[in-house]
Write a structure and sequence with these properties.
Length: 117
């Protein structure tokens, strides 16, 4: 089941240069670094206790352009209700993916808070 806004996903998929998206939640025991200037993400983790979620990132690749990388903090978006309680990793990834897809598609503006529920 996808939680990404269908319009954002469709807008990117229609771009012949769209090369895909990668994303993950990041937990406190993961090895993680992000260099926004260089456009590099290092994320490693094992199968042991990864700890609490601290955020998520998404990387959208468009041929001929620098990858769009977005990082979001879990504490800024956690609503502590509904799906945020039962599926926190999916929900925070959705936020990061939505931000990255929006920028990659060239869409700007304010998104209503309800879109993250």
């Amino acid at each position: 089941m996808s939680f990404i806004c269908p319009k954002l996903f469709k807008k990117n998929k229609e771009n012949k240069d769209y090369r895909g998206m990668r994303s993950s939640e990041v937990r406190e025991n993961d090895i993680f670094s992000i260099d926004m200037i260089e456009g590099k993400v290092e994320h490693k983790f094992g199968i042991k206790d990864r700890g609490n979620i601290i955020g998520a990132y998404a990387i959208v690749s468009i041929k001929g352009q620098k990858d769009v990388i977005k990082w979001v903090e879990f504490s800024e978006f956690d609503k502590k209700q509904a799906e945020w309680k039962t599926k926190p990793a999916i929900m925070i990834k959705k936020v990061a993916e939505s931000h990255a897809l929006r920028e990659a598609a060239g869409l700007t503006g304010i998104q209503p808070e309800e879109s993250f529920i």
